[in-house]
Write a structure and sequence with these properties.
CATH class: Alpha Beta
Radius of gyration: 14 Å
CATH superfamily: Response regulator
CATH architecture: 3-Layer(aba) Sandwich
Helix content: 25-40%
Largest sheet: 5 strands, parallel
Structural class: alpha/beta
Distance between the termini: 35 Å
Number of helices: 5
Length: about 140
């Protein structure tokens, strides 16, 4: 199914259903974007490959079974080099802000995160702030 090109769609990928639900709920409050969520990096990649132009942002966990967030990022960037991707991780020793930029991530969010931390991140990721819900714009 093709969507209108003006539709804003963000993808969220995390193998932990509780984190996935919380992140999707927070984003539903913060943004006008339609949120599409996946517990499997493989299913997320399959959906992305079907319509890479549909997604303006991907928020992905770092550590997932089968294919981690960096590998997922590499696969997606092969189809959409300018895609904005935010990395989420609970392992602060695995990656820092500088390293995440080296991997091409637009932002980094550490678990556990708060609503405010997510809002701040989105406001500071280039282009994304235009898609925040009116009540949440600075």
């Amino acid at each position: 199914m093709k969507t209108e090109s003006s539709e804003v769609v963000w993808m969220v990928v995390d193998d932990n259903p509780s984190i996935l639900e919380m992140l999707s709920s927070f984003l539903g409050i913060l943004t006008v974007a339609r949120i599409v969520s996946f517990q499997s990096s493989f299913k997320a990649l399959e959906a992305f490959r079907a319509e890479p132009e549909l997604y303006q942002l991907v928020i992905t966990d770092l550590e997932m079974p089968g294919m981690n967030g960096v590998e997922l990022c590499d696969q997606m960037r092969a189809h959409a080099p300018d895609l904005k991707i935010v990395l989420v991780t609970g392992n602060q020793s695995a990656v820092d802000a500088a390293t995440s930029k080296d991997f091409g991530f637009s932002g980094l969010l550490y678990k556990p995160f708060t609503f405010g931390a997510l809002e701040y991140l989105l406001e500071n990721v280039e282009v994304l702030s235009a898609n925040l819900a009116p009540a949440n714009r600075s």
